[in-house]
């Protein structure tokens, strides 16, 4: 369509973002083109900085700028309860409900037969070690209520059932086939309160 190649390349990069179609990518690229050069530099710097400074918490895999994240290092959290989620963004969703005061563990994925990910590929070693050390009394499995999330929950239940720990599944009131991050705070909060003992 006669636009310079570097412009089309930017559109292509933006179109790869989740939830951004080609049309939106073009609008964003035009917007960037019209931005002040100072603003574009600040944006580029922020993108670089999140890669440089944000890492995985050594204990729970949450995003953190420190070795240990702000939740794991918070003295007011209940340290014997762990809520297991698939991704750091699920922590954000659960924190918004204000119904949970324990710790988290982020799997950084889920079992996915379509993508060839099975239980042995999941990042559970640190979780098992902590449960094995006896410091945890309760585990709330909060993987997504979709097919992959359910397979992951079943795998975890199997792995954890030999340990002396109470296992719960967040599920009640949540329609199957959705993801934790898309559930409204009130429903998610209720699902946490109504957690089902396994
Ligand atoms: Zn942490």
Describe this structure in words.
By secondary structure, this protein is an alpha/beta fold. The chain has two domains: 5-49, RecR Domain 1 (Helicase, Ruva Protein, domain 3), CATH 1.10.8; 76-197, Dna Topoisomerase Vi A Subunit, Chain: A, domain 2 (3-Layer(aba) Sandwich), CATH 3.40.1360. Helices cover 41% and strands 14% of the residues. It has seven helices and seven strands. It has helices at residues 5-15, 22-34, 37-53, 88-97, 125-132, 147-160, 185-193; strands at 55-56, 63-64, 78-85, 102-106, 138-141, 166-169, 196-197. α6 (147-160) links the parallel β5 (138-141) and β6. It is elongated. The chain starts with a helix and ends with a strand. The model has no long low-confidence stretch (mean pLDDT 91).
- Span between termini: 59 Å
Fraction of residues in helix: 40-55%
As laid out across the biggest beta sheet, the strand order is 4-3-5-6-7
Number of strands: 7
Radius of gyration: 20 Å
The average pLDDT is 91
Quickly name the level 1 CATH class of the largest domain.
Answer: Alpha Beta
Order of helices and strands: HHHEEEHEHEHEHE
Small-molecule binders: zinc ion
- Whole-number tally of structural domains: 2
The largest sheet, given as strand count, sense and whether it forms a barrel, is:
5 strands, mixed
What would you call the structural class? alpha/beta
| Known CATH architecture of the largest domain | 3-Layer(aba) Sandwich
What is the CATH topology classification name of the largest domain? Dna Topoisomerase Vi A Subunit, Chain: A, domain 2
Tally the helices: 7
For this structure, the quaternary state is: single chain
β-strand percent reads 5-15%
Low-confidence stretches: none
Q: Rough shape? A: elongated
